[in-house]
Amino acid sequence: MKKPIFERITEEAKKEAALLVKETKSEANRILKAGKDAISAQNESELTEAKAKSVERVRQYKERNEKGLDNYKEQVRQEIVVSIFDEVVNKLANLEGEELLKFVTNLIAKEKVKGDEVMHVSARNFKKFVTALSSKKDATNLDLLNKKDAKYNFTLSKEPTHVAEGFLLSTPQYDLIFDFKEIVINYQKKHEQRIYNELFKDE
C-alpha cells in the first residue's frame, strides 16, 4: 500500500534537505571563515571607533557635569552672600533700645547736621524710636540722643515717613534720608566681592 502523498513529499523533502546541507557545508564553512575574518576586522575598527566615541562622550558628560557643578556651587555662594546682607537688613530692622540708639547716633555723626532737624519714622516704628532715644519716652525730648553732641536738639515727629525701616531728618530746606535697607545695599555694592573672597578663599 502506497504511503499517502503528503508523507512521500515530506520524506523526499527531508532527503533533499539533507543532501543540500551536506553539499553546502564545506562552502558554508569557507564563507563563514572569510566572513568571520572580514567581520573581525570590521568589528575591530568599529570597536575602536566606538571606544573613541565612548571616551569622548564620557569626557563630554564629565565636562558638562563639572561645569554644572561649578555653576551650582557659584550660585550657592552668591545666594549665601546675598542672604548675609538680607540678614543684616533684617537685623537692623529689629534693632531696639541701646543698640538702636547707638546705630542712629553713628549714622547721624557721619553727616553734616545742624542739630535741630525733626526726625520722622514709620508709624509702626514710632514707639520703638521714642523708647530708644528718650529716657522719658517723650518725642519732644530725645535726651539720650541729644546728649551725644552739644549741638543736638532733635525732636521726633508723629508725622510718619515713607521710609519703612530707618528714619528721616527734616528741615524746611532739606531732608536727610537714612533708609536702613538702602544703607545695606550701598555697602553691599562696595564690599560684596571682598566678603565673597573672604568667605570662600579656602575652597
Question: Descriptors for this entry?
Answer:
alpha+beta, 203 residues, elongated, 4 strands, four-stranded mixed β-sheet
Describe this structure as you would to a colleague.
The protein is of the alpha+beta class. The protein contains 5 helices and 4 strands. The protein has helices spanning 5-93, 97-109, 126-133, 143-146, 180-200, and strands spanning 118-120, 155-156, 166-170, 175-179. Strands 2-1-3-4 form a 4-stranded mixed β-sheet. A hairpin with a 4-residue loop joins strand 3 (166-170) and strand 4. Helix 1 (5-93) crosses helix 5 (180-200). The radius of gyration is 44 Å and the shape is elongated. The relative contact order is 0.09. The model has no long low-confidence stretch (mean pLDDT 77).
Q: Helices, strands, pairings?
A:
Elements (H helix, E strand, L loop, with lengths): L4 H89 L3 H13 L8 E3 L5 H8 L9 H4 L8 E2 L9 E5 L4 E5 H21 L3
Parallel strand pairs: 1-2
Antiparallel strand pairs: 1-3, 3-4
Helix pairs in contact: 1-5, 2-3
Classify the helix fraction into a percent range. 55-70%
How are the strands ordered across the major sheet?
2-1-3-4
Backbone structural class = alpha+beta
- The percent range for strand residues is 5-15%
Radius of gyration, rounded? 44 Å
Report the biggest beta sheet as strand number plus sense, adding barrel if it closes. 4 strands, mixed
Shape: elongated
Looking at the chains present, what oligomeric state does this protein adopt?
A: single chain
